[in-house]
Amino acid sequence: MTEETSGPLFENNGYCEICDSEVRFIAWGEWLRDLYLCSRCGCVPRERALMRAIKRFKPNYRQIAVHESSPAKRGVSSKLLNECEAYSYSFYFPDSVPGAFNEETGGTCENIEKMTLEDESVDLFVTQDVFEHINDPVAAFSEVERVLRKGGAHIFTVPIVRGPYPSERRAFYGPNGISHFKEPEYHGDPIDENGALVTFDYGYDIVEHIYKTGMTPIVLDIVDWRYGIKAELNEVIVSIKK
User: Fold this and answer.
1) How many domains does the chain have?
2) Total-model pTM
3) Does residue 232 lie within any of the structural domains?
4) pLDDT along the chain (242 residues), means of 10
């Protein structure tokens, strides 16, 4: 990964589908996934790709029941919070009662592998770079499928770092603590300054976990410079409940 430069690597005019404005997209380094920013709202390419997918597959997102697990404090999360009539969100707090309201975040406590949300209560389930931090992807995808209504969609990002090669587990949370199978790696966490431990390095075979739930996944790799959508590991996965 290349560090941020002292000046822009390149710039281009375009339209941001998150702040819905004509903007200038500015790349502050070669690692576009984190450094190719909207000059107005500061969003990054994967957020813009995610919003494009939401608008394509759930164009009525403002009027339907939307739930987001572990939202950020910007980008798509802020847009959904501000625009959707029935948007809810949750974080996972290991020491909190599942389903309990958390005053600090304003959301509820939910373990995505075993949620308290009612069956078929959500039309759109959103996660942004969450699934590389969970223990049991099949359990989590199954829970998402359970809470989705028929025709509902799970639209999410996850870094597919291994591409065509098989997924590998990096770590496991067990009753006796954490077992590491690779050097520990942490990503930014909206509720923990220490970061979130990466448990999986995924390849495209992540879709096999989704197929096991009965949902049909589609992997999108969108490139559209006009809308600032271009970066490494920028895939969006859309899983539809039949």
Assistant:
1) 1
2) 0.94
3) yes
4) 71 98 98 98 98 98 98 96 98 92 92 98 98 96 98 98 98 91 89 85 98 96 98 98 94
